């Protein structure tokens, strides 16, 4: 941990977004003694987890001035992680046995995650810090401080000066649409998973789903309930892949990636198979975008790399006044937000110091060189994969907070293993009761819970 040189100071901080990352950032900043204003363009807290039955009018989300629907949640979505390892550390995401309307499953629906985040905001009095229906339209440095321009629901704008800005605006709203050769002249319908809500519109259709990770695996199975046939195109598979998957409707296949889309409506896969499809659903991920940020060209996004960002949080020459919480894609999101937020709060108060901008840039350049040597494409800079645990431990040590609990890391690893190997039933069948027990014993020893869930394994 870098020891503080300065005396502890309290800052006036703007947080952009009241999703999971903004809520925990606000709590940590407040705990550290800072004054916090959260700007949130929606009417409530929860961000991505606020389900909207209406999607955007542009199904691929390509038009730059389209009206934005923030959430990418579909009606049938359940968490892709067990709830014990998903929640914030001192506010575990455990079933609410006092309220029968709540979803007590280990992998609950999106509504339960929203309810959990609302509980969290209430418990830590965070809503009092939020300016709802207020969108940040511009953020820029001015004489060592930050000017934040916001616009409220009456379209009135306001300029305010803050000591620091923490960006928590999320990155699952701007679709990345994979390139498919020939697609421009292909006559069918196309939609990105950001705008997928329910399977109904795909009734009796032949559907090609591109992508087979969390959303692709879910959406292909959801659509298969009503479609005639569903064909998944999976980039990670061998070129000759062609497999019928076991689903009750007997209408789901997995292929290698798409070779080309044709004018006659067919889609040809690299395995040589062709299907005449009605719709292509892109489950191909999202792009980073911070339309409000004006840094005189210092920061940029190139091939989905947000740069320069020391440890994915601080832009060296603008730190610590500007920081980002929640950028890396990793399994254990909420806990990552929590640890990054503690670091930001401690750096802003002067309790922890950052290296000089030159040293941060050196570290960053070395990490880019390493990615290149490992053959990791630039667009995957913020996907931490196997190094996520090391990354979190590094930040936790830097700001002197508790390392991620071993049971939590094991639950995440097991959970992701099951997601990949058993996409049909990983949410309802598991083999890590011992880790559930460990989690609840941990919560109980810290007096964070007073009762146990119904699926708690008997000892
Ligand atoms: P968001 O939840 O997107 O919140 C950002 C907030 O910022 C929003 O409320 C938005 O309105 C606001 N905002 C944006 N721009 C502005 C602006 N200019 N002015 C004012 N306000 C603004 N993670 C898990 O841990 N478990 C899961 O099971 C899981 N499932 C997922 C399923 C899907 C389909 C997706 C897309 C992601 C999933 N994730 C999951 C990851 C999930 O995104 C994170 O867990 C987390 O909820 C993201 O929180 P966030 O606060 O960073 O962003």
From TrEMBL:
What sort of enzyme, by top EC class, is this?
oxidoreductase
Its EC number is 1.-.-.-
Q: Which GO terms describe its molecular function?
A: flavin adenine dinucleotide binding; N,N-dimethylaniline monooxygenase activity; NADP binding
For this protein, the record's InterPro entries field holds: FAD/NAD-bd_sf, Flavin_mOase, Flavin_mOase-like, FMO-like
- Keywords of the record: FAD, Flavoprotein, Monooxygenase, NADP, Oxidoreductase
Cofactor dependency: FAD
Q: Which family does it belong to?
A: Belongs to the FMO family.
Give the PANTHER family listed for this entry. DIMETHYLANILINE MONOOXYGENASE
Protein name as annotated? Flavin-containing monooxygenase
Q: Whose protein is this, by species? A: Raphanus sativus (Radish)
The organism's taxonomy opens as:
Eukaryota, Viridiplantae, Streptophyta, Embryophyta, Tracheophyta
Q: Which gene encodes it?
A: LOC108825620
